[in-house]
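Internal ticket - ligand job 277, magnesium ion:
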Amino acid sequence: NAKNTGRGTTSFFNAELREQASSHVELHHAIMLGLKNDEFFIEYQPVVNSKDGSLHSVEALVRWQHPQHGLMPPKAFIPIAEKSGAIRELGNFVLNQTCLDIPKFRKAKIKGRVAVNFSSHQFYDRMAVDAWFAILEKHDIKPENFTFEITESMLLPDRERQRDLLLSIHHKGIHLAIDDFGTGYSSTSYLQHFPVSMLKIDKSFVDRVPEDKHQTALLTALIHMARALEIDVVAEGVEQITQVEFLNKHCADLIQGFYFARPMPIAAIIERYGEQN
Ligand code: C2E
Ligand code: MG
Ligand code: MG
Ligand code: MG
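stdout (C-alpha coordinates):
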Protein backbone atom coordinates (compact mmCIF):
# COMPACT_ATOMS: atom_id res chain seq x y z
CA ASN A 1 0.00 0.00 0.00
CA ALA A 2 0.95 3.60 -0.49
CA LYS A 3 1.96 4.04 3.11
CA ASN A 4 4.65 1.38 3.08
CA THR A 5 6.06 2.12 -0.37
CA GLY A 6 6.13 5.83 0.40
CA ARG A 7 8.01 5.55 3.63
CA GLY A 8 11.49 6.98 3.64
CA THR A 9 11.10 8.85 0.37
CA THR A 10 10.23 12.46 -0.09
CA SER A 11 9.05 12.48 -3.69
CA PHE A 12 5.84 14.31 -4.42
CA PHE A 13 4.40 11.19 -6.00
CA ASN A 14 4.75 9.21 -2.82
CA ALA A 15 3.51 12.09 -0.73
CA GLU A 16 0.44 12.16 -2.92
CA LEU A 17 -0.08 8.44 -2.52
CA ARG A 18 0.20 8.80 1.22
CA GLU A 19 -2.31 11.61 1.07
CA GLN A 20 -4.78 9.41 -0.79
CA ALA A 21 -4.28 6.61 1.70
CA SER A 22 -4.93 8.89 4.64
CA SER A 23 -8.06 7.89 6.42
CA HIS A 24 -10.67 10.31 7.61
CA VAL A 25 -9.50 9.55 11.12
CA GLU A 26 -5.99 10.76 10.30
CA LEU A 27 -7.22 13.94 8.58
CA HIS A 28 -9.54 14.62 11.46
CA HIS A 29 -6.62 14.15 13.81
CA ALA A 30 -4.37 16.52 11.84
CA ILE A 31 -6.93 19.33 12.04
CA MET A 32 -7.69 18.67 15.71
CA LEU A 33 -3.97 18.77 16.46
CA GLY A 34 -3.68 22.04 14.53
CA LEU A 35 -6.53 23.50 16.59
CA LYS A 36 -4.91 22.34 19.80
CA ASN A 37 -1.58 23.88 18.78
CA ASP A 38 -3.14 27.24 17.84
CA GLU A 39 -2.17 26.88 14.17
CA PHE A 40 -5.47 28.28 12.89
CA PHE A 41 -6.24 31.98 12.85
CA ILE A 42 -8.67 34.46 11.37
CA GLU A 43 -8.16 37.29 8.95
CA TYR A 44 -10.88 39.86 8.36
CA GLN A 45 -11.68 41.36 4.98
CA PRO A 46 -13.56 44.67 4.87
CA VAL A 47 -16.81 45.11 2.97
CA VAL A 48 -16.89 48.80 2.10
CA ASN A 49 -19.36 51.37 0.84
CA SER A 50 -18.59 51.91 -2.83
CA LYS A 51 -19.06 55.70 -2.69
CA ASP A 52 -16.43 56.56 -0.09
CA GLY A 53 -14.66 53.34 0.87
CA SER A 54 -15.97 53.54 4.45
CA LEU A 55 -16.32 50.26 6.34
CA HIS A 56 -19.69 48.48 6.21
CA SER A 57 -18.80 45.12 7.80
CA VAL A 58 -16.05 42.50 7.86
CA GLU A 59 -15.86 38.86 6.79
CA ALA A 60 -13.95 36.34 8.89
CA LEU A 61 -11.70 34.08 6.77
CA VAL A 62 -9.85 31.19 8.38
CA ARG A 63 -6.19 30.33 7.68
CA TRP A 64 -3.92 27.49 8.77
CA GLN A 65 -0.28 28.18 9.61
CA HIS A 66 0.85 24.59 9.17
CA PRO A 67 4.22 23.64 10.71
CA GLN A 68 5.27 21.65 7.59
CA HIS A 69 3.17 22.99 4.71
CA GLY A 70 3.32 26.67 5.67
CA LEU A 71 0.40 29.07 5.33
CA MET A 72 -2.58 27.22 3.89
CA PRO A 73 -5.63 28.95 2.39
CA PRO A 74 -9.11 27.64 3.25
CA LYS A 75 -9.51 26.00 -0.17
CA ALA A 76 -6.66 23.66 0.83
CA PHE A 77 -8.21 22.38 4.05
CA ILE A 78 -11.93 23.22 4.28
CA PRO A 79 -12.84 20.34 1.91
CA ILE A 80 -10.70 18.00 4.05
CA ALA A 81 -12.37 19.32 7.20
CA GLU A 82 -15.78 18.73 5.62
CA LYS A 83 -14.93 15.18 4.53
CA SER A 84 -13.40 14.18 7.86
CA GLY A 85 -16.01 15.79 10.06
CA ALA A 86 -13.49 18.18 11.65
CA ILE A 87 -15.42 21.10 10.12
CA ARG A 88 -17.52 20.94 13.26
CA GLU A 89 -14.64 21.80 15.58
CA LEU A 90 -13.08 24.16 13.04
CA GLY A 91 -16.37 26.02 12.66
CA ASN A 92 -16.72 26.32 16.42
CA PHE A 93 -13.18 27.67 16.60
CA VAL A 94 -14.00 30.37 14.03
CA LEU A 95 -17.18 31.38 15.82
CA ASN A 96 -15.43 31.40 19.18
CA GLN A 97 -12.57 33.54 17.84
CA THR A 98 -14.95 36.08 16.28
CA CYS A 99 -16.75 36.31 19.63
CA LEU A 100 -13.41 37.17 21.23
CA ASP A 101 -12.71 39.76 18.51
CA ILE A 102 -16.08 41.55 18.41
CA PRO A 103 -15.48 43.41 21.71
CA LYS A 104 -12.13 44.59 20.29
CA PHE A 105 -13.87 45.94 17.18
CA ARG A 106 -16.48 47.70 19.31
CA LYS A 107 -13.85 49.18 21.60
CA ALA A 108 -12.26 50.74 18.51
CA LYS A 109 -15.73 52.05 17.49
CA ILE A 110 -16.00 49.68 14.55
CA LYS A 111 -19.71 48.96 14.36
CA GLY A 112 -20.56 46.70 11.41
CA ARG A 113 -21.55 43.07 11.54
CA VAL A 114 -19.04 40.24 11.37
CA ALA A 115 -19.74 37.69 8.64
CA VAL A 116 -18.83 34.03 9.21
CA ASN A 117 -18.82 31.36 6.48
CA PHE A 118 -20.70 28.12 6.94
CA SER A 119 -20.72 25.12 4.65
CA SER A 120 -23.72 22.82 4.40
CA HIS A 121 -21.68 20.16 6.25
CA GLN A 122 -21.93 22.32 9.36
CA PHE A 123 -25.73 22.29 9.33
CA TYR A 124 -26.22 18.64 10.20
CA ASP A 125 -28.50 18.93 13.19
CA ARG A 126 -30.16 21.06 15.81
CA MET A 127 -27.41 20.30 18.34
CA ALA A 128 -24.79 21.91 16.08
CA VAL A 129 -26.85 25.08 15.82
CA ASP A 130 -27.58 25.12 19.55
CA ALA A 131 -23.84 24.80 20.17
CA TRP A 132 -23.30 27.99 18.15
CA PHE A 133 -25.93 29.84 20.15
CA ALA A 134 -24.21 28.58 23.31
CA ILE A 135 -20.87 29.98 22.12
CA LEU A 136 -22.46 33.42 21.62
CA GLU A 137 -24.10 33.26 25.03
CA LYS A 138 -20.89 32.18 26.73
CA HIS A 139 -19.17 35.30 25.40
CA ASP A 140 -22.25 37.46 25.94
CA ILE A 141 -22.28 38.47 22.27
CA LYS A 142 -25.64 39.43 20.77
CA PRO A 143 -26.67 37.50 17.63
CA GLU A 144 -27.26 40.87 15.92
CA ASN A 145 -23.48 41.17 15.62
CA PHE A 146 -23.37 38.36 13.08
CA THR A 147 -24.10 37.56 9.48
CA PHE A 148 -23.87 33.89 8.53
CA GLU A 149 -22.81 33.32 4.93
CA ILE A 150 -24.24 30.26 3.24
CA THR A 151 -24.41 29.13 -0.37
CA GLU A 152 -27.49 28.70 -2.54
CA SER A 153 -27.31 24.91 -2.28
CA MET A 154 -28.51 25.14 1.31
CA LEU A 155 -31.83 26.54 0.13
CA LEU A 156 -32.59 23.80 -2.37
CA PRO A 157 -36.03 22.23 -1.91
CA ASP A 158 -34.55 18.90 -0.76
CA ARG A 159 -32.72 20.59 2.10
CA GLU A 160 -35.75 21.15 4.26
CA ARG A 161 -34.02 20.31 7.53
CA GLN A 162 -31.25 22.81 6.85
CA ARG A 163 -33.84 25.43 5.96
CA ASP A 164 -35.51 24.92 9.34
CA LEU A 165 -32.16 25.38 11.06
CA LEU A 166 -31.51 28.52 9.00
CA LEU A 167 -34.90 29.91 9.98
CA SER A 168 -34.11 29.45 13.66
CA ILE A 169 -30.85 31.33 13.10
CA HIS A 170 -32.75 34.15 11.41
CA HIS A 171 -35.22 34.29 14.29
CA LYS A 172 -32.32 34.73 16.72
CA GLY A 173 -31.41 37.96 14.92
CA ILE A 174 -28.47 36.69 12.89
CA HIS A 175 -28.51 37.94 9.30
CA LEU A 176 -28.21 35.49 6.43
CA ALA A 177 -26.16 36.22 3.32
CA ILE A 178 -26.04 34.13 0.16
CA ASP A 179 -22.36 33.74 -0.71
CA ASP A 180 -21.02 33.20 -4.25
CA PHE A 181 -24.45 34.22 -5.50
CA GLY A 182 -25.11 33.21 -9.08
CA THR A 183 -22.81 30.18 -9.14
CA GLY A 184 -25.26 27.72 -7.63
CA TYR A 185 -27.32 26.91 -10.73
CA SER A 186 -30.36 26.90 -8.50
CA SER A 187 -33.68 28.62 -8.87
CA THR A 188 -33.87 32.09 -7.37
CA SER A 189 -37.42 31.40 -6.23
CA TYR A 190 -36.19 30.79 -2.68
CA LEU A 191 -35.66 34.54 -2.42
CA GLN A 192 -39.47 34.90 -2.32
CA HIS A 193 -39.97 33.04 0.90
CA PHE A 194 -36.65 32.98 2.63
CA PRO A 195 -35.30 35.76 4.89
CA VAL A 196 -32.09 36.64 3.09
CA SER A 197 -30.55 40.03 3.99
CA MET A 198 -27.64 40.06 1.61
CA LEU A 199 -26.53 38.66 -1.73
CA LYS A 200 -22.82 38.43 -2.37
CA ILE A 201 -22.34 38.34 -6.11
CA ASP A 202 -19.52 35.98 -6.99
CA LYS A 203 -16.24 37.30 -8.37
CA SER A 204 -16.87 35.44 -11.62
CA PHE A 205 -19.66 37.93 -12.43
CA VAL A 206 -17.41 40.90 -11.74
CA ASP A 207 -14.04 39.91 -13.26
CA ARG A 208 -14.55 41.16 -16.84
CA VAL A 209 -16.82 44.12 -16.11
CA PRO A 210 -17.23 46.49 -17.84
CA GLU A 211 -15.26 45.26 -20.92
CA ASP A 212 -17.28 42.10 -21.45
CA LYS A 213 -20.79 43.08 -22.61
CA HIS A 214 -22.42 39.78 -21.73
CA GLN A 215 -21.00 39.62 -18.23
CA THR A 216 -21.81 43.27 -17.64
CA ALA A 217 -25.44 42.63 -18.59
CA LEU A 218 -25.62 39.70 -16.16
CA LEU A 219 -24.10 41.69 -13.31
CA THR A 220 -26.45 44.60 -13.95
CA ALA A 221 -29.45 42.27 -13.89
CA LEU A 222 -28.33 40.68 -10.60
CA ILE A 223 -27.87 44.11 -9.00
CA HIS A 224 -31.29 45.28 -10.13
CA MET A 225 -32.96 42.10 -8.91
CA ALA A 226 -31.41 42.44 -5.46
CA ARG A 227 -32.33 46.10 -5.23
CA ALA A 228 -35.91 45.42 -6.31
CA LEU A 229 -36.16 42.81 -3.54
CA GLU A 230 -34.60 45.30 -1.09
CA ILE A 231 -31.75 42.94 -0.33
CA ASP A 232 -28.24 44.34 0.22
CA VAL A 233 -25.89 43.39 -2.56
CA VAL A 234 -22.13 43.00 -2.31
CA ALA A 235 -19.88 42.69 -5.34
CA GLU A 236 -17.08 40.26 -4.49
CA GLY A 237 -13.57 40.20 -5.89
CA VAL A 238 -13.40 43.81 -7.07
CA GLU A 239 -9.82 44.61 -8.09
CA GLN A 240 -10.03 47.46 -10.64
CA ILE A 241 -11.05 51.11 -10.46
CA THR A 242 -13.12 50.59 -13.63
CA GLN A 243 -15.17 47.98 -11.76
CA VAL A 244 -15.69 50.37 -8.83
CA GLU A 245 -16.86 53.11 -11.21
CA PHE A 246 -19.28 50.76 -12.93
CA LEU A 247 -20.72 49.52 -9.62
CA ASN A 248 -21.13 53.08 -8.37
CA LYS A 249 -22.97 54.07 -11.52
CA HIS A 250 -25.35 51.13 -11.12
CA CYS A 251 -25.97 51.77 -7.44
CA ALA A 252 -24.29 48.63 -6.18
CA ASP A 253 -23.48 50.09 -2.79
CA LEU A 254 -21.22 47.48 -1.25
CA ILE A 255 -17.88 46.18 -2.42
CA GLN A 256 -15.50 43.51 -1.18
CA GLY A 257 -12.24 43.16 -3.01
CA PHE A 258 -8.52 43.70 -3.18
CA TYR A 259 -9.07 47.15 -4.77
CA PHE A 260 -10.13 48.48 -1.36
CA ALA A 261 -8.71 45.94 1.07
CA ARG A 262 -7.35 42.43 1.36
CA PRO A 263 -8.06 40.12 4.28
CA MET A 264 -5.90 41.22 7.23
CA PRO A 265 -5.36 40.57 10.94
CA ILE A 266 -7.76 42.29 13.34
CA ALA A 267 -5.02 44.71 14.46
CA ALA A 268 -4.67 46.01 10.89
CA ILE A 269 -8.45 46.46 10.59
CA ILE A 270 -8.51 48.46 13.81
CA GLU A 271 -5.53 50.54 12.78
CA ARG A 272 -7.12 51.39 9.43
CA TYR A 273 -10.79 51.80 10.33
CA GLY A 274 -10.91 52.19 14.10
CA GLU A 275 -10.90 55.22 16.33
CA GLN A 276 -7.65 55.69 18.23
CA ASN A 277 -8.12 56.18 21.93
P1 C2E B 1 -15.71 33.42 0.23
O1 C2E B 1 -16.55 33.28 1.43
O2 C2E B 1 -16.39 33.74 -1.06
O3 C2E B 1 -14.63 34.53 0.61
C1 C2E B 1 -14.08 35.45 -0.30
C2 C2E B 1 -12.78 34.93 -0.87
O4 C2E B 1 -12.40 35.75 -1.97
C3 C2E B 1 -11.62 34.99 0.13
O5 C2E B 1 -10.73 33.93 -0.19
C4 C2E B 1 -10.98 36.34 -0.25
O6 C2E B 1 -9.62 36.43 0.12
C5 C2E B 1 -11.14 36.31 -1.75
N1 C2E B 1 -11.13 37.65 -2.33
C6 C2E B 1 -11.72 38.77 -1.85
N2 C2E B 1 -11.52 39.81 -2.66
C7 C2E B 1 -10.78 39.36 -3.69
C8 C2E B 1 -10.22 39.98 -4.86
O7 C2E B 1 -10.38 41.17 -5.13
N3 C2E B 1 -9.50 39.19 -5.70
C9 C2E B 1 -9.30 37.86 -5.44
N4 C2E B 1 -8.57 37.15 -6.32
N5 C2E B 1 -9.81 37.24 -4.35
C10 C2E B 1 -10.53 38.00 -3.48
P2 C2E B 1 -10.17 32.91 0.92
O8 C2E B 1 -9.88 33.63 2.19
O9 C2E B 1 -9.09 32.12 0.29
O10 C2E B 1 -11.41 31.98 1.21
C11 C2E B 1 -11.91 31.11 0.21
C12 C2E B 1 -13.20 30.46 0.65
O11 C2E B 1 -13.00 29.58 1.74
C13 C2E B 1 -14.26 31.44 1.12
O12 C2E B 1 -14.86 32.07 0.00
C14 C2E B 1 -15.18 30.52 1.88
O13 C2E B 1 -16.05 29.86 1.00
C15 C2E B 1 -14.21 29.51 2.48
N6 C2E B 1 -13.95 29.83 3.89
C16 C2E B 1 -13.11 30.76 4.41
N7 C2E B 1 -13.17 30.77 5.76
C17 C2E B 1 -14.11 29.83 6.11
C18 C2E B 1 -14.63 29.36 7.35
O14 C2E B 1 -14.30 29.84 8.46
N8 C2E B 1 -15.56 28.35 7.29
C19 C2E B 1 -15.98 27.83 6.10
N9 C2E B 1 -16.90 26.84 6.13
N10 C2E B 1 -15.52 28.25 4.91
C20 C2E B 1 -14.59 29.23 4.91
MG1 MG C 1 -17.94 34.28 2.30
MG1 MG D 1 -17.86 34.38 -2.09
MG1 MG E 1 -17.31 30.78 -0.97
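Auto-summary: The CA atoms of residues 4 and 90 lie 31 Å apart. The radius of gyration is 20 Å.
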